[in-house]
Amino acid sequence: MDDHQKLKKATYHLWTFTISKLISSFGAQVYAFAISFYILQATGSATSFAANLICNILPRTLAAPFAGYMVDKYSRKMIVIIAQIATTLAIGGLLAVSFTSGLSLAAIYTTSCILSLTSMFSGVTFTSSITGLVDKERVQRAMSLNQMSISFAAIASPAVGGLLYGAVSMPVFLIMYMAASTIAVTLESTMNFKLFANRKEPVIGEPNESMWQSMKAGISYLKLQPLLMTIIWISLLINFLFGAFEVGYSFILIEKMKMVSQHFGFTQGAFAIGMLFLSIYFSIRKEVKFPFLVSKRAIIGMGIFMGAIALPLMIKMTYGLVFSYYMITMFSLGALIIIVNTPLMVMMQKQIDDDYKGRIFSILETMSMALMPLGMVLYGFLYDVFQAQWILLLSASLLIGVMLVLARPAVVRKAHPQLERERSLKREAGVVS
């Protein structure tokens, strides 16, 4: 295949990847919305609802290292297609149960576990395959379009879910999700995952590496990449400290500010719109020159806005002003998350060898997911004991402090040696002029 044909195929990949991601993200979120509603309506139990959330988080956290090994060892296209087919069959199974014996919590939990696993396998595989699907010049565009489809699904799915939940029965919901999943499988089957891939072909006669040896090789590779280790530590600690926002935000707005549910929903929508706007911006602008530095500044910005959530607890404001303030704060936080994620992910896509991407991204997924439940449990306890504003301000200060230490100027210089050269050239130009 010549370069012109490759670029044409890469353009096709950009759009099929975005459409299939949008269909699967949208379907999954509308399904999650409907199932959550169904569980709460059928049982009225917060414990049953929480158990379904655990079924969404726990399987993907436990299986992520295994997924990384599979993604690096086997055909990535085959893994994506099998995962999407398994999603379709799991929904089909739940549909069959609803027709024969009626929906039960056991059937819903089992389906949630299967969908959690399939979405994780599909997610890790797609993330590891970006540089195989598109040319290097458009990696940032691909990452932005991916994020755009997730953000769009986050904005539209509650509205669509709410409309459909009142209008159609649960079996119709499931049939629609199955149809969407089938379209996604069809699109994914037309993609060439090896178009720009740079993976080593297995040597005949070479002994097969066991899963444990493969994981050890991935960790050894990671240890040789100090910048990747720094990024993983930053993402670990940020995900943990961001629990102060995840738990505290709803608690403050609903319990302390007595915000009505519709207005609360608007503020959450503003967060998703912030993400969508910045994803569109990154999909059309040229690649970020110093991604680590840009992400560092955006994380410090996130710390400032996280602390700012506490301000209406300390200063008396009218209801209208509180609502406007949180709309702006949430929009800014959503935008900053994209400014952190997109440049960092592009940098990692280009730095990690194709043969190790599955394992590295799965380690990142495991570590970031592992501390999230712990952060939520800890902050849930802290918000019951201490005043909300001090928890937020302390966590925001810790987040900024962690960033200033882990991404200190010496680390930024190592990540971007050309930054120092540019600065010295600018200083020289200033002296000359």
TrEMBL record:
Residue ranges crossing the lipid bilayer per the database entry: 12-32, 79-100, 106-127, 148-168, 174-193, 224-245, 265-284, 296-319, 325-348, 360-382, 388-407
Gene3D superfamilies the record matches: MFS general substrate transporter like domains
Pfam family membership, one: MFS_1
Keyword Flavoprotein applies: no
Subcellular compartments: Cell membrane
Keyword annotations: Cell membrane, Membrane, Transmembrane, Transmembrane helix, Transport
Membrane topology (UniProt): Multi-pass membrane protein
Principal subcellular localisation of the protein: membrane
Region forming the signal peptide: none
PANTHER family: MACROLIDE-EFFLUX PROTEIN, PERMEASE, MAJOR FACILITATOR SUPERFAMILY-RELATED
Name of the protein in its database record: Enterobactin exporter EntS
Lineage, uppermost ranks: Bacteria, Bacillati, Bacillota, Bacilli, Bacillales
